[in-house]
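Q: Give me the 3D complex with ribulose-5-phosphate.
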Amino acid sequence: MKVKIMSQDELKKLVGEEAATWVNDGMTVGLGTGSTVKFMVDALARRVQEEQLNITGVVTSTVTAKQASALNIPLKSVDEVDNIDLTIDGADEISADFQGIKGGGAALLFEKIVAVNSRRNLWIVDQSKLSDKLGSFPLPVEVIPYGSKKLFSIFSKRGYAPTFRLDNNGQLKHTDSGNLIIDLHLKMIEHPHDLAAELSAQVGVVEHGLFLDLVNTVIVGYPDGPKILE
Ligand code: 5RP
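A: Here is the predicted complex, encoded as structure tokens.
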């Protein structure tokens, strides 16, 4: 069999379009953030228009809100809906046991709020995001600006190799909530649940990018087509 060589973007588009078919009429759908989700939102908006689907989107960032509202997907906030039937989001790294790192797009806080309030979470990734153990992608930690240098030095002393996230202009990146991101360059996370508990207990940490025991299904893009992992 001849397998077409596909770029990472083509793989993202493939899984984005596949995931859009998982949405049914009447659903309330969490809309994640990132370049893979962008393809999904485009495809979903086409379905809404062509099939007259009656859905409500719950967005996880101002970027996705802008895209979805420009494409006429009706939106509500997480506080305005009773339930979220399905949330479709990207991920930065997924381990063999379905744990994940998210926040590469700095939207981890709203993404996690939407994810924990969803009946079902579906992640869409290209094959490069899969790894045996988490840690090769730097772990984002969202922190309030006040005291962030103190947190940085605590993380440094613990050997977590922190860096402050910068924006495209070389300035400190601010999240949708006005917070900062410290990325931890850990290389390997042996005990993700312990690390998650440690970070959550740290005063000044708003949220971290370990998404543990949250995802039910992953759609992975391979050159010979999307594969569903459950
Ligand atoms: C944003 C995220 C994204 O879902 C993650 O970074 C994946 O992004 P992409 O689809 O662009 O690779 O967590 O905070």
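A quick observation: The chain is about 30% helix and 25% strand.
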